[in-house]
């Protein structure tokens, strides 16, 4: 369940970054950033972060859950920032496997 | 006007951050290690049998036997129950009269009820106390750390005002661009873990608020501070001693009552006030690994008859409950190893934020043709030197002879001696080559620690990994990761210098 929350946080940060004009182009591997996509990506990112909040609360309860969510958010953004600096196109790679393994481990 | 305000805030930010910055870096780094205080205490005592199953009834009985035998005349006992994280019973006693020490703390092997037969070390307590006490006499260290934390809070708030593009630069890090890169790193580490930084700084101040802001308490409670702490739910005030001897109740016989009141939660500690006195009180406190707040449930028993007297925590006033919650969050003992790792990483981000800020301060001025030798030397002495000192502590733990006199303190001495050597090196050479030397030195010390561990103990990686001994395997892997990180930093600084040279 914690891994699922982490996957959702990372995915959320990824989508939020991909929805920004500065990062979107290199991250999506295209020359020009498609402006139409930006609001969709940003809404997806926000939605994933909300989902990860509820996943963390489900795992740790309503007192420790929000603390865990903040920690996952802070730590989950670090690898993304590092990848955006050196290999922006690869930042999307971990999203799907992380979500799949997290989903599988949490036994849905 | 707006411009002037922001400039004033920028000035305040750089001074509130710079002056206590070197200390704050050390507080963040050693504080982060303190999330693993019980684990470090176990790693530094490799002789202890690992994975001992505990049996609360037996452990309490062994501790009571030991204390009755060795300190029947003490005024207070404290028994800290073994945890999964540290399977040892902590016993502490205070004496107000009679012969013998006024304070003594022992670690018992719960199965034998005797002090452990392990090397003398401060273990995880060394970093834990350093991070707010600096191992200084009186309360000097706590005051210095407190003033630094207040400056840190100012630096955090002014930093938010000064940071013009908080959301636009949220994910931005542009490496290899000199001061620009350090500003990016400083901002990213600050913004990404901002909830942690604010929480840890503020709650740290709250924990020691009676030291930093004593005047309100003095005004209302006068000299009777114990009453304040009792009303705030921070300690228990026993009735005065009766002066009539009476046998203490069998503590283990009270355990079933605690188990009934706290289903699924263990007893964390047992305080005995006035053992052997007719007015003795026994206080059971629930373990602190299951709840966020440090307002831990307590049961108060009559120490002679064993009748349950009260459960005081239910009526704690709101501010006291908030204080206990902040206390619990600062300590971060709840939530299991994954959450401890998240706290640890957030703390490292805090150290990285402070470190990048310090390097930015001197780097920006050097780019403008100014050099500040003292600040540059301190930067290297702290950012490069402290990791070396931490590694030296772990090396000393494995290399100092077990029978050495004052062995525990000498481990600490090795920490400070290594730090001092790094500091002298930093004062003599402040150039990029000196940074690489110190990073390489730290990398070498950390990378070789698993080898040293394998040579000096029976817990080396080839043994601990197949055996699933995650404590020792985890430390070795963490040392490798730490060493790899330091090696990465030394490579990075070399590459940057080449780029600047072109």
Automatic annotation (TrEMBL), chain B:
InterPro entries: PepSY-ass_TM (IPR005625)
Ranges that cross the membrane: 12-36, 143-162, 200-221, 338-361, 381-400, 412-428, 470-492
Keywords, sorted A to Z: Membrane, Transmembrane, Transmembrane helix
Domain of life: Bacteria
Entry protein name: Peptidase
UniProt source species: Telmatospirillum siberiense
